[in-house]
Design brief:
By secondary structure, the protein is an alpha+beta fold. The protein contains three helices and 14 strands. The strands form four sheets. Strands 1, 2, 4, 5, 6 and 9 form a six-stranded antiparallel beta sheet that branches.
């Protein structure tokens, strides 16, 4: 019995030590220049952000939220969620009522970077880094962008005539923590 208890405590201690990951939080500092066109109901901007890798892992990509694309068509996760709730606005909405983000041209440390949509989700991009980002290191990411603001009757981002509700409107990195990336669509 004594040997069983000793083995149990050794295994429990080994598991606890192996699963202890120190808390960290990535650091992102933004600089955004943007203008609102209140005739076309759009935003035109240029964004630069510095991303510091405070994790113990080397990163070869960043997941970037492009959440205005949730308003783009009836195929997005937000549209599908609304359909399940009985709201079919996005299915029948005119193009002028829908929204999106485009004109993206990502550069990492002034070097053009390859990117694509994550698993066919147009509101999440995967930005491939030209060079791996080591623990403790930082990179600068920049891109122009254009946002066509949707109808404010769909959700939080949008406009109703000249009244604007501007939320989740610029490209921004997804959360990366001890569990990895969290590329969550806009819902």
């Amino acid at each position: 019995m004594k040997n069983i208890l000793v083995a149990f405590f050794i295994c429990t201690a080994a598991l606890a030590i192996g699963q202890t990951t120190p808390y960290f939080q990535q650091q992102v500092d933004y600089s955004i220049e943007v203008s609102l066109n209140d005739t076309e109901h759009s935003l035109k901007g240029f964004e630069t952000f510095t991303y510091k890798n405070n994790s113990s892992q080397t990163l070869d990509k960043l997941f970037i939220h492009l959440w205005p694309n949730a308003y783009k068509n009836a195929k997005t996760a937000m549209s599908k969620q609304k359909f399940r709730q009985g709201d079919f606005f996005m299915l029948w909405a005119k193009p002028t009522a829908k929204g999106y983000i485009d004109s993206l041209d990502f550069k990492v440390n002034n070097t053009p970077a390859k990117w694509d949509y994550f698993e066919d989700q147009e509101d999440i991009a995967v930005l491939t880094l030209p060079q791996p980002l080591a623990p403790g290191a930082s990179i600068t990411v920049s891109t122009p962008f254009f946002v066509k603001l949707p109808s404010g009757s769909i959700s939080r981002l949008g406009h109703i005539e000249q009244s604007y509700q501007i939320t989740q409107w610029y490209p921004k990195p997804a959360v990366y923590d001890k569990d990895g990336w969290h590329p969550i669509p806009y819902l």
